[in-house]
Specification:
single chain; 14-stranded parallel sheet
Length: about 400
């Protein structure tokens, strides 16, 4: 590149003479007595100096261009079972749709600090190849800080492979669409972020390691669980629809807010030590919310085949509603639950609130039930506060109400 740019940007000799003639070549206005001899700098020296400056500038420009220019993925080497191998940190771009054979992993990242810009293109597999364990994009162990954005993956992976697997930590996935993956949809390690991404018609949805963030994502029509969340994850404004398993499976310290879970084959939300706020569960085959040691605030469970809220031990549920669920609204099966200020109604063949004999040291207070087959079914009195009342006359703040 440098010789071409030198030819284009070479300063003409006349211009050099014009610029330098009045300064560098100027002599004494009163020359000494004797023969005339050259003074100042020669033209050859001027040209050599300008050439040196120009060479340095062009070399610096070339270096900057090489640093900033992304590498086409199609220029990368292959390996056994892998179409393209990334072995140096940097930015890599897809220059067009990549059509794989389905038996090979399309892109394998073997170093940390990699950015993959799909540029709106797709990685398309070649169908189902059992036992190959291929991925569209995969990382080896110990690789962290991988970013993938702006593209699609379709028809890739078998039951032991999938679309995207980022094993390490600190990864980012943005604006990626996965369809028809025979294996997992999106899997990433801890401290990672998944934004505005979709998994559709795949074996499983989005799986995130500890302390990850998932926002504005959608999972639909996957065979397994929609979202599998390790401890400390935060999930906001996401949807899980028509998954074969649970919509959301959450472990300790997970926070789920503003999410929807509908028409799934399992529970809407399976919670263990988690917090859910302003979430909905609709028409799931299991319970709307199944919880142990968890908190639910301002959530809604409706038209589920199972129970609206199936509560084991150590739960706090307040200002939630359960309507038109087949089995019933709220059921307490374990110890030390606090269920207050909730609504349960229109369970024509089910209960409003049910407390089983093993549910001791529980508080069921200030709730309201209406239009149910049974209203408050207390099968134990250990720790239960409040009584069933038809109206508010002489009521206390601990009482539960029905009509």
């Amino acid at each position: 590149m440098a010789p071409i740019m030198k030819t284009l940007f070479r300063i003409p000799l006349a211009a050099a003479l014009l610029v330098t003639g009045g300064v560098v070549l100027a002599g004494d206005v009163n020359p000494p007595v004797g023969p005339i001899t050259p003074t100042g700098v020669t033209l050859a020296e001027i040209r050599a100096s300008l050439d040196a400056i120009e060479d340095q500038a062009l070399d610096a420009a070339d270096t900057l261009v090489e640093i900033e220019r992304p590498t086409p993925i199609e220029d990368l080497p292959s390996a056994l079972g892998v179409d393209y191998v990334i072995s140096q940190p940097g930015t890599y771009v897809l220059s067009g749709n990549h059509y794989g054979d389905g038996a090979n992993t399309a892109i394998e990242v073997r170093v940390s600090g990699v950015v993959i810009d799909l540029r709106g293109f797709a990685i398309i597999g070649g169908g189902f190849f059992p036992g190959k364990g291929a991925y569209a994009i995969d990382t080896i162990g110990g690789v962290n800080n991988v970013t993938i954005f702006n593209g699609s993956i379709a028809d890739f992976g078998d039951s032991s492979g999938g679309a995207i697997r980022l094993n390490g930590e600190g990864n980012v996935i943005v604006d990626v669409r996965v369809a028809s993956s025979q294996g997992s949809g999106i899997r990433t390690g801890g401290n990672s972020t998944v934004l505005r991404s979709v998994v559709y018609n795949s074996a499983s949805g989005i799986s995130a390691g500890f302390a990850s963030v998932i926002r504005d994502c959608a999972v639909q029509s996957v065979a397994g669980v929609g979202y599998t969340l390790d401890l400390g994850c935060v999930v906001e404004n996401c949807t899980a629809d028509q998954c074969g398993g649970d919509g959301y499976s959450a472990s300790d310290a997970v926070v789920i807010e503003g999410c929807a879970s509908s028409r799934n084959g399992g529970d809407g939300y399976d919670l263990f030590g988690a917090v859910v706020r302003q979430c909905t569960a609709y028409q799931n085959a299991g319970a709307g919310f199944r919880a142990f040691g968890s908190s639910a605030f301002a959530c809604s469970a409706s038209y589920n085949t199972g129970i609206g809220f199936d509560l084991s031990s150590g739960n706090h549920v307040t200002r939630c509603s359960a309507t038109s669920n087949n089995v019933g609204g709220f059921r307490l099966t374990g110890i030390r639950n606090h269920v207050s200020s909730n609504y349960s109604g229109q369970h024509s063949t089910g209960f409003g609130f049910q407390v089983l004999p093993a549910a001791t040291d529980c508080f069921v207070t200030a709730n309201f039930a209406t239009a149910n087959s049974s209203y408050f079914d207390y099968q134990t009195t250990n720790g239960i506060l409040g009584t069933r009342r038809v109206n508010l006359t002489n009521a206390t703040i601990w009482d539960n109400f029905s009509n």
